[in-house]
Automatic annotation (TrEMBL):
Its main location: membrane. It is a multi-pass membrane protein. The keyword Heme does not apply. Belongs to the CobD/CbiB family. This is Cobalamin biosynthesis protein CobD. Pathway: Cofactor biosynthesis; adenosylcobalamin biosynthesis. Converts cobyric acid to cobinamide by the addition of aminopropanol on the F carboxylic group. It is found in: Cell membrane. NCBIfam families: cobal_cbiB, PRK01209.1-4. The gene is cobD.
Amino acid sequence: MKFLAASRADAVGLVLGAVLDAVFGDPRRWHPVAGFGRFAGALEGRLYADSRWAGARFTAVAVGAPVAAAAIAARLTRDRPVARTALVAAATWSALGGTSLAREGRVMADRLTAGDLPAAREQLPNLCGRDPNALNAPELARATVESLAENTSDAVVAPLFWGAVAGLPGIVGYRAVNTLDAMVGHRSARYARFGTASARLDDVANLAPARLTAALTVAAAPLVGGSPARTLHTWLRDGSHHPSPNSGQCESAAAGALGVRLGGRNVYGSRVEERPHLGDGPLPTPADVRRAATLTVAVGAAAVALAAVARLGLARRRGSRRKP
């Protein structure tokens, strides 16, 4: 019964955290993710070496420490539902980024609609790490739609998924893993070996959430004028063509729902990547960027409901197994 009550508090906390994100967006000050970033940066300074072993040790400590703290907090509040709900709500709010993501996408759509390319290029770094300087309006729109699709999983569905599976430690652990990947998991001379463990752990943590995001995109396609059948077909056909095991799932589903073509030449500083095309149709327009932002909100709302129901369902299933 205690486990069921705690899981009810978790479910309510997940919903409240999502409501806070919908109303306020990301916390303006004292963001816990920024604090974790400072902790991880200091830890990197102590543990860095140009080896995979050093990177694995760094990842284990950087993820293990906040997860252990969250597990202790969850245990201490197991019999205090109000405190537990507040903790889970705060962690969920800090981990989610759907409202800010959709808002940044709409700002890009507005700037592209106005024909203000310099402002649109200035906006792109708020969404992804691609070099915006040589991009025209269709390519800026493509980069935005791809970022919205990928980050709907990373910043919305995945934290909720892990909150449903593991409660407070799951939310905290996922956000730590995803933040480390952003810090050291990218390709560069410094992190080619040291960042391997963080990048691979992020891939594993996102395997299920990315595919759930694609499935929810199929269901939400009619809300943006898309066809579920076409979305499913595009996802199943193109999802594995992307170099990432997870991003392609979300991006191909979004391409199918919006009826656009994604993929192509991406420039990241001095690095150039040629990616396969995902979906059929023209490059995205500013109107498609707005539709992609709407898709982010719709998929996020469905994920919140699923996470709360799943957390309660897992608790009831575990409780029934304990009965004689």
